[in-house]
Amino acid sequence: MEFAELIKTPRVDGVDLHRPFMPTVEGTLCLTGHHLILSSRQDNTEELWLLHANIDSIEKRFVGSLGTIIVKCKDLRVIQLDIPGMEECLNIASSIEALSTLDSVSLMYPFFYRPLFEVIEDGWQLFVPEEAFKDLESMTDEWRLSEVNKDFSVCPSYPSLLTVPKDIDDESLCKAASFRHGGRFPVLSYYHKKNGMVMMRAAQPLTGTNGRRCKEDEKLINATLCAGKRGYIIDTRTIAVAQQAKARGGGFEQEANYPQWRRIHKAIERSNVLQDSLIKLVEACNDQSHSMDRWLSKLEASNWQSNVKEILTTACLAAQCIDREGASVLVHGTEGTDSTLQVTSLAQIILDPACRTIRGFEVLIEREWLQAGHPFQQRCAQSAYSNGKPRSEAPVFLLFLDCVWQILRQFPCSFQFNENLLIMFFEHAYASQFGTFLGNCVAERVKLQLSQKTVSLWSWVNRPQELERFLNPLYEPNNLVIWPSVAPQSLLLWEGVFLRWNRSTKCLDEACQEMVHIIEYNKELQNKVNSLRRQLAQLETEESPLQTP
Amino acid sequence: MEHIRTPKVENVHMIDRLTPRKSTVGTLYLSSTHTIFVENSEARKETWVLHSLVYNVERFPTNPSGSPLIIRCKNFHVYRLLIPQERDCLDVLASLTRLSRPECYGELFCFSFNPNLDKELREKAWGFIDLKAEFNRMGIPSNLWHVTAANHEYRLCDTYPSELFVPKSAFPAVIVGSAKFRSRGRLPVLSYFHRDTSASICRSSQPLSGFSARSSDDEQMLQAIMKSNPISEFMYVVDTRPKLNAMANRAAGKGYENEDHYTNIKLQFIGIENIHVMRNSQQKLIDVGELAAPSMSDFLWGLENSGWLKHIKAVLDAGVFIAKAVAEDGVSVLVHCSDGWDRTAQACSVASVLLDPYYRTIKGLMVIIMYAHLDGDPKEVSPVMDQFLECVWQLMQQFPCAFEFNERFLIQLHTHIYSCQYGNFIGNCQKERRDLRLQERTHSLWPHLWENRAEYTNPLYRTDHSQTQGVLKPLTTAYCFKFWKGMYGRAEKSVASHQSPADCLNAVREESQQLEEELSAHQEVPRETDAGQGIHTHAYISHMYHQAF
């Protein structure tokens, strides 16, 4: 067993665990292949179970023979372990370092995890493209399900089944794919039932400096327009960035070749910039000694809130084009796997009430993120405490969740789920016992045989016992399009994630419980009154005088 | 009426700057008390703006579409009008400028406001809140504290009430001597008495100590205050000014207590800035709220640059310091600044809210506001009350179940403090108020608010909730403070929040109450009337229910 070699000291007694806003716990520290465990010897066992995969970085310090390891986690928590004995401390530190940076995916915990619950509904079957297509077919006959990518050769980051305009054959799709970055030709992302408008997504066209064009690509996207209608291409990059992309073979759709489309450029930052923004934000949030001026200036300098605003604004724009302007939309940036997905998935939350249910939101993540080829493994390899040069890490998904939280906060009655669900998805995207977020695209997941060898996150979340935690007591199904405000004063710092470990949440949790009580009590009363009303009605129809002497 | 040049202007546009399509057309009316805008739409929606709430009126150069006029209110509402004819615009401007600047007390709205109440009810309404009763609630008079007649007919200090609470052990000569040694005669008097520890909060103005002056009477006065708390061996003197300001006052023969002259006092400077700094800061904050389409950076930078949250933090920190001394250390505190109104009133009020659950109820907050106001607020417009209300709002964010009232109550209070509709906030001290015969000539706000308290109730508040009990210990780290959108983000109507959880919950609770009534009508089950007790009542009802059937 290769883990044993990495664990030099499996167990140390007398270790002190310090966490902010919690009492110090003294106990025994154990290292296993996948966990760091601290258990106190008291009966009311205060325990810490930490996945090695959750550890972002560690720091060690020595005062005499007392060693201290500061463990910084991907879920942003920072804990401190005081370990007696210098050798033990060094051993523990090097073991943690080795175990938390395993390269091979197949050594990750999901491949070893055996659920303690019965899988009633297999989460790997949560989203079946064929079934989704049946729904689409019931509304329109202008689309077909193409198997052109069944062996992932046309586009390695796309799933095997794709929804495309009916009139475009597979051969044209292949040609269009060769004209788009990474083979990501335009595919259907969302069909707006209300007016039949659609949202498509793709990667940038490979126009290059000499303005290459592709008739099939033009035909493909024109096929989504009704006669005489114009559509909008939303390029998530600024015009300057899009221009620069030409030098590297990329580019954007020229008006001359796409006369029926109006192109709009937005300014969503690229992933390496976002990573830097996250690091700065978390640094600001973790320093409790900041004066007000310094805090606000660091918050501003991190640019995190600006990123949230820009992404939400772009999503609102896409939704507006579809719902208000009655136009179809094509969204892309460079690769079409990051900002593009942020925009298309958020626009759907704005437009489609189904995405605001738990099931619908899971399907949205499955469809618009996992199957759409967001490289989770690369992006979530490190979080805010990564030291060293970031490779391809970026909090793209976290920013999406942050934007969802902003909408949820503005429309607290329109979502079936609460903030906890979003925080849970954030945690699991970075470190999990489930296989859902492993790999970078469908092709990789198939190769890793995730659906056979690991448990799906959805298998666990969708159990009634777990779902309860994630339900929003205020939810009232609402069929309307919801328009969030993107004014700076309407967008708040997501405290549930960024200040989670830096304050006590007792009072806020109590408020949530109180809310649940009020609603549950009301439901119980309703049931009682209804049953009484029924009994009364029954008594009246029977007309039997129930007189007691 | 002689100030109204044009009572009616037609085809006026009310502009919504953020969402121009929400702008409306209507007719503008000027009455002696209000500006009224009636929309031409079918709903004939009316907007009423009280003249006394108008802060300023500004006209912009006429353009082809008309003459723009901006009305800014003291409660931070902003109305943007477009008047077709320049002449009408000038008339409205002149009328409003005059009407919003009463030249004598008699012109104030409260002297003409007549809500159809008979004389007896009006007098009763003025007795709704009674300071003596409030001290009785705290257990005063007691064997250690009593009322002194020293300020009868305001002969000791004309800005204090005539009845003052002082230590029983302080002889009349000491009281008079102490008053002589304090700026404007504002000697140390009791502000709050904490029964659990017998520690007290007293307030005063700065001593006339200069560089070397001393008064044995004043020293004895402080000694008497300290001795009124039998268990404590020292007391704090909290000077709420920055130390430099306090030192500068010594040159003018004022200053702070010399620790060598007073036995067993500990002097503590808190560093709340003076009223001029605060007013400046607030204006900058208001400007931030008025920015046209600000970026996130503009907003955060503006927020930082205003310094407003820094000042709010300073006030809350002062309250926390005092509350901790009184509740945890059992040490009495004397609070002063320069003259002993703004900062002293703020700090004492915030400490009281932290210490005593009563001040977190609707009636309790009325008491504290009246109390703080009565004690000689200076004539100039100052954001002292705004800051106190905001501190309460910031606390509500951390302790959502601790307050009986909601945000709407704070905003309503804020509006009425400036509206001059009721007599409660007219005049600067008891003497002036008595001279104006306010109780005979104007109405009191409190009963009006009390009658509508259902609208101002926090659904999460329960008298038996743990957050409702005891002392609040808020976190005052910089990141805990938020921009108060409900107050300062009101310049534009479209920024209003979409759904309010509190309103949903209140509706649910109301329904529950009706259901309870229906149930008890069916079953004749005894029922507690307080809806807040519902959850506990519920077990009882269900028990009875099973018995009945």
TrEMBL record, chain A:
GO terms for molecular function: protein phosphatase binding. Its main location: membrane. Belongs to the protein-tyrosine phosphatase family. Non-receptor class myotubularin subfamily. This is Myotubularin-related protein 9. One of its GO terms (biological process) is negative regulation of autophagy. Gene3D superfamilies: Pleckstrin-homology domain (PH domain)/Phosphotyrosine-binding domain (PTB) (2.30.29.30). Residues 123-498 form the Myotubularin phosphatase domain.
UniProtKB/TrEMBL annotation, chain B:
GO terms for biological process: phosphatidylinositol dephosphorylation. The keyword Mitochondrion does not apply. The active site is at 337 (phosphocysteine intermediate). GO terms for molecular function: phosphatidylinositol-3,5-bisphosphate phosphatase activity; phosphatidylinositol-3-phosphate phosphatase activity. One of its GO terms (cellular component) is cytoplasm. Substrate binds at residues 274-275, 337-343. Pfam families: Myotub-related, PH-GRAM_MTMR6-like. SMART domains: PTPc_motif. Residues 125-488 form the Myotubularin phosphatase domain. PANTHER family: MYOTUBULARIN-RELATED, PHOSPHATIDYLINOSITOL-3-PHOSPHATASE. This is Myotubularin related protein 7b.
